[in-house]
Write a structure and sequence with these properties.
With 384 residues, this protein is of the alpha/beta class. Helix content is 35%, strand content 24%. The protein binds zinc ion (ZN).
Length: 384
């Protein structure tokens, strides 16, 4: 019965094409309506653009010690993906529910919304909060704003379950994700006179080479016994665009790169090293020829990871709810570290597998949805 209701909610949620580049307001209002109907106090927090919003809601009395159920409302695009059926129409085949966002992570949101009666019961023991954000897939932009607001409030939730797809396994650590766009401004000219210009592509390549040196350092810095897979902080050069033609000194280049740090120290190390390479080496050389040349760095997002802790009440709660007693670390980024950064205990556990996320024919199995409903349902009877 509950599974049927939840499946219908998931179908509705998948029907909202809430790709990160587009507005998420329709899906947020749908979720808000359901939460309000269940008696929750709902806040829709608009971003400055007016096209995006976070939702924060509370069931039960507003007091300290509450539990947050957290998910992101946005999904990745379906561009250039070969889907068997329409990605924004939920389709059931062989016990699996297909659609964009099925596992990442509308499945978990549907399980929450399908359990509101039980969660209202659970809210008698402690407040149950819902945090549904925008723009997780493009750097956790919504969650970064949300935690700033929550941090200032007199009443604070204590625990957070992030329902990212973990096949319902418990994870108490994830790497961070820091994304940067670097723009190189050179001076164009004829390729026959390279000394008179500043080749932006060339400087971008030198910058990249320095990143690769730092990547080798990160492997050496990796602490023994790191539970992450792969164990060290990783670094990726994702895109490089620049230049005009064979015989023109490239006036501009743009580079997109990221690191996935296992701790804040690695994040600081890479940032400081690359910044001093720019200041002490690249910029002086560029400006000796062209004073107008420059390198500017735009931070797309700097999301701290979830650092595994010895004491973690959110992990212990999910252990009790699911009967598991082992927690792992995931390599993909989540919003968990942001909640941890404002003093909450956070854990990641949700239906569906990351293997299916972001791909064509994304799905969540009915079995996984049942497990998620069972976990949430047990909150109604759980103590602590
Ligand atoms: Zn996700």
């Amino acid at each position: 019965m509950r599974l049927d209701t939840t499946r219908a909610i998931l179908s509705d949620l998948i029907g909202f094409p809430s790709v990160s580049s587009d507005t998420n307001l329709p899906i947020i209002h749908y979720i808000a309506d359901r939460l309000e109907a269940a008696g929750a106090a709902v806040e829709v927090m608009m971003d400055p653009s007016g096209h995006k919003a976070n939702l924060f809601a509370t069931l039960g009395e507003a007091r300290d010690g509450g539990l947050v159920l957290s998910g992101h409302s946005d999904v990745v695009p379906v561009t250039d993906q070969d889907w068997t059926s329409d990605p924004f129409t939920m389709t059931e085949r062989d016990g699996k529910l297909y659609g964009r966002g099925a596992c990442d992570m509308k499945g978990f949101i549907a399980a929450c919304l399908g359990s509101l009666d039980l969660l209202a019961e659970a809210a008698r023991t402690r407040p149950i909060h819902f945090a549904f954000t925008h723009d997780e897939e493009v750097g956790c932009l919504g969650a970064q704003e949300l935690v700033k607001i929550l941090a200032k409030r007199p009443v604070k939730p204590a625990l957070c379950i992030i329902g990212e797809p973990t096949s319902m396994q418990v994870f108490d650590g994830n790497k961070g994700c820091c994304e940067y766009t670097v723009r190189f401004e050179g001076r164009p000219g004829h390729s026959s006179a390279p000394d008179k210009g500043v080749n932006a592509v060339e400087y971008a390549v030198r910058y990249i080479n320095r990143l690769f040196e730092l990547r080798a350092e990160l492997v050496k810095r990796c602490p023994e016994g790191s539970r992450f897979d792969p164990p060290p902080t990783t670094l990726n050069v994702g895109a490089l665009r620049g230049g005009i033609s064979h015989n023109v000194i490239a006036p501009r280049a743009e580079l997109n790169w990221e690191i996935r740090p296992i701790n804040e120290a690695d994040m600081r190390f890479v940032k400081e090293e690359i910044a001093s390479f720019v200041e002490d080496t690249l910029l002086p050389e560029m400006r000796a020829i062209a004073p107008e040349a420059g390198i500017s760095t735009e931070t797309i997002g700097e999301v701290v990871g979830l650092e595994p802790m010895d004491e973690n009440a959110a992990r212990d709660l999910v252990f009790a709810l699911t009967g598991q007693n082992h927690a792992g670390c995931v390599a993909f980024n989540t919003e968990a570290g942001l909640f941890q950064s404002i003093g909450m205990d956070a854990v990641i556990c949700g239906p569906g597998s990351i293997e299916q996320a972001h791909k064509a024919d994304e799905f969540v199995s009915l079995d996984q949805m049942s497990q998620a409903l069972a976990m949430i349902g047990r909150l109604a009877s759980a103590r602590s």
